[in-house]
Amino acid sequence: MEAGAMVTGATDGIGKAYAEELAKRGFDVVLISRTLEKLKNVAKGIEEQTKRKTKVIQLDFTGGPEIYPKVEKELKDLDIGILVNNVGMSYSPEATTFLDVPDLSQTVTAIMNCNMMSAVQMTAIVLPKMVQRRKGLIINVSSQAGAHPYPIMTIYSATKAFLDYFSRSLYIEYKSKGIMVQSVLPMVVSTNMAHNLPSNLLVKKANDFVREALNTVGYTHRTNGCLSHSIQSYFINNIVSDTLLASKLMEIIAKSAKKSLEKAIQQKKQ
Predict the structure, then answer these.
(1) What does the mean pLDDT of the chain come to?
(2) Which of 3, 31, 95, 165 has its CA 20 to 30 A from that of 85?
(3) Rounded to two decimals, what is the model's pTM?
(4) What span, in angstroms and rounded, lies between the C-alpha atoms of 49 and 87?
(5) Catalytic residue among 156, 171, 219, 234, which?
(6) What is the distance, to the nearest Å, from the Cα of residue 176 to the centroid of all Cα atoms in its chain?
């Protein structure tokens, strides 16, 4: 198999949507995620619906540098023209303040490995061949949560800020070599991480979001992905300031948001 695209975190949500949409657009796809059964099911669905070839690689991205030689070996003879660094995780099961994160040291290490190291290591694996061909696309799925500090989801916000800055710097370094690097900063998308909130004008379905986001490739190296999220981001970026973030009002908003999220989770369980 000669794969055109590779997606991390490809069994759910935005990652699955990227894999499916890229296959619809004519690319063979390598799917990488933690659960083999889910990988096989998504791959089977893609092959049946699009007739494109797939390859699955089972990998737990919460691990350290020792997990990546396996990926290099699996990709040795493949031609990857598109890399989507999507895999990511946040606190589970709900947003919380830093010291109240369950199993703090282990959880924070897992989030940092999954959200940051994965993108750096995967990029290091596929970028050399892209540079040789003077052609390639790397899409890094960051978050609007990385555009400003976000209380009650501190580590998630900080890792997504890293991913955005990594993308923007990489774009400047390699655009002259024919490499397009795009940072995608979604608002809320209806996925497992967002507790599958109902879609509406503000909350996008994953497949709708990805379809619009892919249409921005070649036009911008940094995007909120869709018109709805761009409008929301514009207002947030012009309202939220460091002064507001440090204010008592923001503390109240954060606590209120946490209570609302906990209530929504409990209602879903009932």
Answers:
(1) 88
(2) 95
(3) 0.88
(4) 23
(5) 156
(6) 25
The pLDDT score that the predictor gives to residue 235 is 82
Length of the chain: 270
Checking if the pLDDT of 261 tops 90, the result is: no
Token reading at 63: 């691990």
Give pLDDT tens digits for 91-120: 866 678 899 999 999 999 999 999 999 999
